[in-house]
TrEMBL record, chains A, B:
GO terms for molecular function: 2-alkenal reductase [NAD(P)H] activity. InterPro entries: ADH-like_C, ADH_N_2, GroES-like_sf, MDR_fam, NAD(P)-bd_dom_sf. It comes from the Eukaryota. Residues 13-57 form the Oxidoreductase N-terminal domain. The keyword Oxidoreductase applies. This is Enoyl reductase (ER) domain-containing protein. Keywords: Oxidoreductase. The keyword Ribonucleoprotein does not apply. Residues 103-236 form the Alcohol dehydrogenase-like C-terminal domain.
């Protein structure tokens, strides 16, 4: 019971999340015993999967299987769709990525660099900022927790303004970005992690009038709508880039299902460095 | 000096606005003495126009000349671009228009009805609501000043949600609309009149996460970027519709340049009914 007197009742349910699994039994001829798959599974050692929608067979088992929860799976595909499909980027454009060391952000930044864009990322610790600059090849990176005035910070990093923003956080970062967007800018809204767990919504976004004055397109998307592009992304884009070493990928691995709750909670305060993975069982 | 002790200094300048004028002298061979034009002119009896960018010769002088400040000019073109180009509307979609009795809004609503959409407008008085329903043919209309809970109001008018929103006001209306948008909705941001004159920005938009969950595209635009489509809009779309009586247009006419300041100020409290026009000189 919280202090306003409301009672919240939780019905225990298995938490779902993107996982990699091996099929131990199947009545579906397309998925045979021994096949490796990725898709929505349960936080449990054995899952009964009733729908094959959004379930993909793993063909390239020579790459680390955990990559299919990240760079080769939903987050990687999200980065690809958000950057290429939603933002229609061009060489030389100025790209800003928030939550840039996360599973989506680190890839967006690397895709943008490969295209010849100028890329700056924001993250919440010195370690992450170093990672962005030294491992992922971002042109620059900022620690948003050390910036009292995000608008002024963005003006330092982008004196010419921002063409493309990959929005992962929302809140005051979005407000500062709007002030620094260039004419005809694009904002792909992947998520707004700062807004997910607020008891009351925060102060709100105040600079939306910039959408008009700068003719900005701001578009939310969910990667489920782009499953038809997944095979192309996987085979033509990301697997070759990973195998050629042109893209780097960092995971933060927790071991054991019993450590999954702490790993989840840690995401909201930025404890993870790179994609948070939980190893439930090894082959 | 305002109460915080700041001193504001204004340098007197001629206010500019969209006007209709007759050329009394010209050194440009494309614009001859006697030609009628519309475009950005001064709030004055005679203007010296140095740039012909955004200046259009009036060919259809058989329609009221004041219409070129509205339905046949910038606001009409704005309605056309915002609805057709930005929102890609389809027959049967649910369309909501704010500031719906204004120069842009009344046209968007009528374009949407002609296409076979379901259209509701919001305005700030009973007279305007009546105008929307009885003169412009909106399916329904609401007086936002009488609605304490805009979210609940929109749920009454759009039990199935909103596909397309023509945003002219911003603020709490936008927040309520976001909660009521349908998946794959489009928001064309024409303006945000509630935000123009705030000493401090208001409480901000809090429901932007809906952009992601509902895959909404929100796009600001300025009609200047679409001048290439103006001749098509004028000759193929709006002039035929006006001449055939398929589109109605309401103006609120103030007479005399000395009444222009009050007419302008009145816009921000919604005193005008329809497009506010000021007659400076008659032929």
């Amino acid at each position: 019971m919280n202090c306003t007197g409301k009672i919240k009742v939780f019905t225990p349910q298995t938490i779902t999340g993107y996982g990699v699994a091996k099929i131990v039994d199947s009545s579906n001829p397309d998925f045979k015993k021994g096949d490796l798959i990725w898709g929505l599974t349960g936080w449990e050692e054995y899952s009964l999967i009733k729908s094959t929608q959004g379930l993909f067979k793993i063909q390239n088992a020579d790459l680390p299987l955990s990559y299919y929860t990240g760079i080769l799976g939903m987050p990687g595909h999200t980065a690809y769709i958000g950057f290429y499909e939603i933002c229609s980027p061009e060489k030389g454009e100025y790209v800003f990525v928030s939550a840039a060391s996360g599973a989506v952000g680190q890839l967006v930044g690397q895709f943008a660099k490969l295209l010849g864009c100028y890329v700056v990322g924001s993250a919440g610790s010195k370690d992450k900022v170093d990672l962005l600059k030294n491992k992922f090849g971002f042109d620059d990176a900022l620690n948003y927790k050390e910036e009292r005035n995000l608008d002024a910070a963005l003006k330092r990093y982008f004196p010419n303004g921002i063409d493309i923003y990959l929005e992962n956080v929302g809140g005051r970062m979005l407000d500062a970005v709007l002030l620094n967007m260039r004419v005809n800018g694009r904002i792909a809204v992947c998520g707004m992690i700062s807004q997910y767990n607020l008891e009351h919504p925060d102060e709100g976004t105040r600079n939306l009038l910039c959408l008009v004055t700068k003719r900005i397109r701001m578009e939310g998307f969910l990667v489920f709508d782009y499953y038809n592009l997944y095979p192309k992304f996987l085979e033509m884009v990301v697997v070759p880039l990973v195998k050629q070493g042109k893209i780097t990928y960092v995971e933060d691995v927790a071991k054991g299902l019993e450590n999954a709750p702490n790993a989840l909670v840690g995401l909201f305060s930025g404890c993870n460095v790179g994609k948070q993975v939980v190893v439930v069982a090894s082959e």
